[in-house]
Design brief:
With 438 residues, the chain is of the alpha+beta class. 38% of the residues lie in helices and 20% in strands. The protein has 13 helices and 18 strands. An 8-stranded mixed β-sheet has the order 1-11-12-13-16-10-9-4. It has a 3-stranded antiparallel β-sheet with strand order 5-7-6.
């Protein structure tokens, strides 16, 4: 959630930062409500001070003066109650509106309207020169006999797929390889729940704004199902970030770094007609996620470390890729700065190739922490005077999307005879196999 105190202190400056994202619905209403709340509370405080003053005066007043002051005291009391109730009502309206206001971008985030305005930071690995026209991952996978979308559609509908045989093993090998990469560098592995409450989704920012992208679960037989009680996770960022919801951590214990492997479930609302072929945009896919908890001073270093982690995995798998700094118009709702990592897919565009997102790494500032009630207590030099807890910073990033990594591996390492060479780093996870063949 946005910092309402910062908005109250300097509404114009705060609104200007937010408007770098473009039009922000309800922002003007929020600014008005913040002002109304401040006026009501200031008036209530002024009248409370006057009532306290009258109370002291009554101790020395004559009976006649005391009676007169009692009337004023009663009027002040009624007015204070009215003002406090008004502030409470404004608070409720303000909270509801603030939940759909995005996170203001950091000053160094480039301005822009969409993906065309993102800034390329660096490229790693040169795309391979193929002596033949490279196929896309669907043709490669079907040639190997490892992908079956038709039978998945018969069972579950569009945007689902079966991976079988070497394909299923390859997916599992990639996930384990990624997890081992993160664990070797100090992350704590989490195996999270795949069903979460609305409160958890509110904490990370998926609700209320992106409810159409979620799959809700109703308990009981279909004819007797009650209201939605839980939701399938769109990413393990949700349960892992909420791990510390409503808790206070010690500054000395930060940063805390976690990784988690899970399936992810997304309705893909608004993506009709996009990436309907193959595994690029599925309702269910697997991902290894990185989640970080840190102080504001640590946040940007942690973001760069996450980007390096994701990039190193792709380099180890011999996958050409690039790092993009997202502009204000292309950032996610909860992010204040985001890097996308895009992998080269030579089989896209009829063999012409294209870069496609495989990881997104973001710092969310205190935005999620405020919503989820996660704070840290700064280290104090005086043990008898602990400092006031503050909202900490949360970060998250893909390390990596397993399905898209599988796509990239099939397309980049395909051979003219339909075989796929296994990168050396991955071979121990496939029983030493160096080539996939039908």
């Amino acid at each position: 959630m946005i910092d309402l105190r910062a908005l109250e202190q300097d509404p114009d400056a705060f609104a200007a930062r937010l408007r770098r994202r473009g039009d922000v619905n309800s922002l003007d209403d929020v600014v008005v409500l913040v002002h109304e709340r401040k006026v009501a509370l200031t008036s209530a405080q002024t009248q409370q001070a006057r009532r306290n003053q009258l109370n002291e005066q009554m101790k020395k007043a004559t009976p006649e003066e005391r009676e007169q002051k009692r009337g004023e005291m009663k009027a002040l009391g009624d007015s204070i109650k009215e003002l406090e109730q008004k502030a409470k009502d404004v608070d409720e309206r303000l909270h509801a509106l603030a939940l759909v206001i995005p996170n203001p971008p950091l000053p160094e985030v480039p301005a822009g309207a969409g993906a065309d305005d993102n800034v390329e930071v660096r490229r790693l690995g040169a795309p391979r020169a193929f002596p033949f026209v490279p196929k896309d991952h669907v043709d490669v996978a079907e040639g190997l006999g490892i992908l079956d979308a038709a039978r998945a559609a018969k069972i579950s509908g569009a945007r689902f797929a079966f991976l079988q045989g070497q394909g299923a093993r390859l997916q599992r090998a990639l996930a384990t390889f990624m997890l081992d990469h993160h664990l070797a560098r100090g992350d704590v592995e989490m195996a999270p729940p795949y069903l979460v409450s609305a409160k958890a989704l509110l904490g990370t920012g998926q609700l209320p704004k992106f409810g159409d992208d979620l799959f809700g679960v109703s308990f009981g037989p279909p004819k007797e199902a009650g209201p939605t009680a839980l939701y399938l996770i769109p990413t393990s960022e949700v349960p892992v970030t909420n791990y510390y919801a409503d808790e206070i951590l010690d500054e000395a214990d930060l940063p805390r770094r976690f990784c988690a492997f899970s399936p992810c479930f997304r309705a893909e609302a608004g993506s009709a007609g996009r990436d309907t072929r193959g595994l690029i945009r599925q309702h269910q896919f697997d991902k290894v996620e990185m989640v970080r908890f840190c102080t504001p001073a640590q946040a940007l270093d942690e973001l760069e470390l996450m980007v390096t982690r994701a990039s190193d995995i792709m380099s180890a798998l011999e996958l050409p890729h690039r790092v993009m700094l997202l502009c204000t118009g292309d950032m996610g709702f909860a992010a204040e700065k985001t890097y996308d990592l895009e992998v080269w897919l030579p089989g896209q565009n009829e063999g012409q190739g294209a870069y496609r997102e495989i990881s997104s790494c973001s710092t969310c500032g205190s935005f999620q922490a405020r919503r989820a009630g996660i704070r840290y207590r700064p280290t104090s030099t005086d043990a008898k005077k602990p400092l006031k807890p503050l909202p900490l910073v949360t970060l998250n990033g893909s390390g990596l999307a397993v399905g898209r990594t599988l796509i990239a591996l099939l397309e980049n390492h395909q051979q003219e005879d339909g075989a796929v060479v296994v990168p050396a780093a991955l071979r121990p996870y496939l029983g030493g196999a160096d080539v996939l063949r039908r």
